[in-house]
């Protein structure tokens, strides 16, 4: 089963200059809780934006570059989106963690979306794709307000797989 996890603002912005825009400790905690022990799948640019390889998670990084090598047992490099699509039929849940290029290619194949909806309008250069909320059942809607940032944790499940 393929799921997706993302933090998105009201302009559908997810990042700027290959970085996240917000630092929301509760969101990072939620990301860790949801993905710990699981496989996380990301584009090469998102991988390079991480401060470090994330502990206790298997990383799959997609790039067209056949010479791209990461010598770490927890990182696998793939070159074709088909290598990700095969996880759709796996019983375990794997997570698409970004960025824009990967979200836009994979959103239609994701059964669940774990979103942090940030209620602000910063500009950026990376966006989350449009999707129709009516195609999903909302499993979670939790409102938060911390340090002047208002955000919601949402989980959606696709109605028709
Ligand atoms: N808010 C959030 O939740 C969140 C989460 C993650 C990332 N982000 C943000 O998103 C931004 C990065 O997004 P992005 O779209 O620029 O980059 P990205 O999706 O992370 O990575 C794009 C790269 O992935 C590879 N790729 C994509 N599709 C491929 C395919 N079909 N086959 C083979 N390789 C493929 C290519 O690598 P090569 O160029 O090496 O071929 C491409 O340049 C950053 O600002 C980051 O902070 C936000």
TrEMBL record:
SUPFAM superfamilies: Dihydrofolate reductase-like (SSF53597)
Catalytic reactions on record: (6S)-5,6,7,8-tetrahydrofolate + NADP(+) = 7,8-dihydrofolate + NADPH + H(+)
Pathway(s): Cofactor biosynthesis; tetrahydrofolate biosynthesis; 5,6,7,8-tetrahydrofolate from 7,8-dihydrofolate: step 1/1
GO biological process, one term: folic acid metabolic process
Matching Gene3D superfamilies: Dihydrofolate Reductase, subunit A
Family statement: Belongs to the dihydrofolate reductase family.
PANTHER family found in the cross-reference section: DIHYDROFOLATE REDUCTASE
Name of this protein: Dihydrofolate reductase
């Amino acid at each position: 089963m393929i799921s997706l996890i993302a933090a998105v603002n009201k302009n559908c912005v997810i990042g700027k200059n290959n970085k996240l825009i917000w630092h929301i400790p509760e969101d990072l905690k939620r990301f860790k809780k949801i993905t710990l022990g699981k496989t996380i799948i990301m584009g090469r640019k998102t991988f390079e934006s991480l401060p470090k390889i994330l502990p206790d998670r298997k990383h799959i990084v997609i790039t067209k570059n056949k010479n791209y090598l990461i010598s770490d047992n927890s990182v696998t490099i793939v070159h074709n989106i088909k290598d990700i699509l095969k996880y759709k039929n796996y019983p375990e849940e794997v997570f698409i963690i970004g960025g824009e290029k990967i979200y836009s290619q994979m959103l239609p194949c994701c059964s669940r979306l774990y979103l942090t909806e940030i209620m602000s309008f910063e500009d950026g250069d990376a966006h989350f794709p449009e999707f129709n909320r009516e195609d999903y059942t909302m499993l979670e809607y939790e409102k938060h307000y911390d340090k002047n940032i208002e955000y919601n944790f949402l989980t959606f499940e696709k109605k028709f797989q």
